[in-house]
Write a structure and sequence with these properties.
With 312 residues, the protein is α/β, with parallel strands linked by helices. The strands form two sheets. The chain has a nine-stranded mixed β-sheet with strand order 5-4-1-8-9-10-11-12-13, sandwiched between helices. β9, α5 and β10 form a beta-alpha-beta unit. α1 packs across α8. The radius of gyration is 19 Å and the shape is globular.
Length: 312
Amino acid sequence: MARIATLTLNPTIDGSSDAATVQPTHKIRTVNERFDPGGGGINVARVLARLGADVEAVYLAGGVTGPVLGGLLDRAGLPHRVVPIAGDTRISLAVHEVQSGKEYRFVPQGPLVSEAEAAACLALVEQLDCQWLVLSGSLPRGLPDDFYARIVATARARGMASVLDTSGAALKATLAAGGLRLVKPSLGEMEAFAGRKLDSEAEIVAVAREIVRSGGAESVAVSMGHRGAILVEAAGSLALPAIPAEARSAVGAGDSFVAGMTHALAAGWDSHRAFRLGIAAGTAAVLTPGTDLCHRADIARMAAMLGIDALL
């Protein structure tokens, strides 16, 4: 089995709870509180572990809240390695308003990372023993836009396949440097990358095809929520509709998609079948409340609806 590492540069302690109503000024009493280790790559690692992958979560954390994140990872039974930083690891909160069914998500910007801490992170990547490296989540303050690109270059030199899920300037810089096996932008992130609205499937495919042609990534998987997803590669494109599902939480849907598709690619599945597993995992994530992400049984059920008979 191929070994997968995930890297989370700006992780979170993810809190979630339910409230009857959300309103200003008044104290809002909550129930069903839970705390999970979070942030892009950590979420990906949690789902990979549920799928049975050989995975390790690598992350930056520190301050008074860093040990709490480590404790949550220990409780989840997820192998992990930390790059210590001075700043406090952020705490995010998702509140589900029972009366309306709406979800409110509060996400701090996170700590400032120093040059020395960034160098320690790069040094750790050079020591990783894995075949696949997933780079997922936002860049924390203090890191340059091309930081992911530097990591991809290091990974390529060591024979690792790199997967990217980020946005904004970090996405542009990494795609410009090239060498990714897979990139998974949302439609909004794709539009920000293109600098314009992409109203049709043809427009989305055209932008993704240019990413592939320029060497940015071998595969571009664009997730579009209720509109489904599109996979673009040199050999062509594949558009699939969304699986009908009653959403309970949007937290971690994109991360679950990345986990499902990466797990399948690392196991040697062809990209179209892997793309279907990604959609299944992303859909399964919205079925669970708060920060619980997706579960194997739900992924299997969603995958069957896309013609995949069994999981790995």
